[in-house]
Amino acid sequence: MLQKMLYLYSRRSSPVCQKKQDVKARLCWQGHVPFHTHHKDGVLICDDFLTGHCLLGEECQQHHTPRPYHWQLRQTLSRDWVNVSELGQKHLEALFCNPDKTDITLSCENAGGEEDLVQRQHSAFSKLDLNTLIPQNNWSYNKVRRLATTSNTDLNPHFLTKWNLYWQELGKWKLYKEPVVSQLEAAFEKGMWNQAFMLNGNLYNVDLKKYTQCNIKTNFTREVRRRPQLISDTELWPLIKTLPLEESKKQPVVSGPDPLKPSKRRLPPTWVPGHPRKEVFAQIPVLKSGVAFACIHSLFHSSLSESEAIILDIYQIQNMHQWTKYTIQKKFMSRGLSSAELSQLELPLFHGTTEEAVQSICKNNFDPRVSGQKHGSNYGQGTYFAKNASCSARYAIESKSGHSYMFLAMVLVGKSAVGKQSFRRPPPLEPDSPTSDLYNSCVDKVQQPQMFVIFDSCQCYPYFLIHYKKLTDTVNVF
């Protein structure tokens, strides 16, 4: 029997089954899910376990882990493999999947218990070469490993590990294309040392151990890199049975349809009845396996990649007073608009903020009167919103714990004009008329604007709060 390391990962607070005959129920049951990893290298993660169908339980000769990948550190003295924390798993995986990353830093500053005792006589930080996965200085861990599922499509139809192969040209990493990529990947899977291929009339040889590509005729050598394709939790949720479920019985959660689609309902389609109760507003967690989370996740990461940030939680803000003001303003601004104009009236836009300002915005809405105090007001003295999360991320100042916050707001942009720093309100539609109506908002540019400025708080509503972490090259492993 291979040496194992057993650990538990709670999905809900139900008791753990102890009897051997309960193994099947334990794996498929929505209670504690028992995991184990083997000490020996070269063992795959069990695909059946990830889908809740492994009947072998603790006797399975493959790894039982929460995801199709799993990171561990090997202690120098005991040679035991230690699991990286939940957030550390995602952080390390995102960096490893990025071909631009070569050296990163591992930190044990948050270690506790036995790990803290082991760490005290060693540095809390270590450089890690992502090509060798070997820590580079005197550290209490001498090796890092990434457990994974197979890349064989015949063996793993659900959680296949997909590898990307790159070659370097002028400092940039370029993907190999077919049929070369299939030839190289097959060679890697067979454990071969070299693989030759023809491309544009030239013969090349790839050293699969040194990760280099050599032109046989000119002897010119390039670096080669093999990294897995990043897979997010939103892709795993439909099939995987090992990720934690929200405590939906203890607190309400937001599920339901796409919350960003136009709706004629009085309240948003994902609004949870009965909340808030006594408070002015309620922050309702968005179910991570639901459609709403996937839609917001997709919009957020469309400009801010998963190699740059990890979403930790999303909350729907339910504030009846502010929502009522918003809907009244929307009805007023909709008067006399054509179908095409109505489709452009309202947009979901991002607003980066600080941890200290979150509760005030949830309660009192965005306040144009205090805008620009920290970040300037190039297009007017109002509240700023961005089409892309990557833009708003510049204004989402990290908290002391390294976390960031961003609102996804519903904004009535209406008719827009290019703003100026001196503007305290939008300019008139007809400059020569003293009774002219005003534009509804200001923008950075008329064609395909990226930044919107709102001068009236009833034209915006803090719909969702995104709690996330910006990814640096330093990973807290515990």
Automatic annotation (TrEMBL):
PROSITE patterns: PARP_CATALYTIC, WWE, ZF_C3H1
Keyword line: Metal-binding, Nucleus, Zinc, Zinc-finger
Domain PARP catalytic: 267-478
Residue ranges occupied by any C3H1-type domain in the UniProt entry: 40-67
Pathways per UniProt: Protein modification; protein ubiquitination
Region entry Disordered, spans: 250-269
This protein's record includes keyword Zinc-finger: yes
Major location (coarse): nucleus
InterPro entries: ARTD-AVP, Poly(ADP-ribose)pol_cat_dom, WWE-dom_subgr, WWE_dom, WWE_dom_sf, Znf_CCCH
Domain WWE residue range list: 149-226
Zinc finger (C3H1-type) boundaries: 40-67
Superkingdom: Eukaryota
Biological processes per GO annotation: protein ubiquitination
GO cellular component, one term: nucleus
Subcellular location(s) per record: Nucleus
GO molecular function, one term: NAD+-protein mono-ADP-ribosyltransferase activity
Gene3D superfamilies xref list: 3.30.720.50, 3.90.228.10
PANTHER family registered for this protein in UniProt: POLY [ADP-RIBOSE] POLYMERASE, PROTEIN MONO-ADP-RIBOSYLTRANSFERASE PARP12
Family note: Belongs to the ARTD/PARP family.
Identification of the protein by name: TCDD-inducible poly [ADP-ribose] polymerase
Organism per entry: Acipenser ruthenus (Sterlet sturgeon)
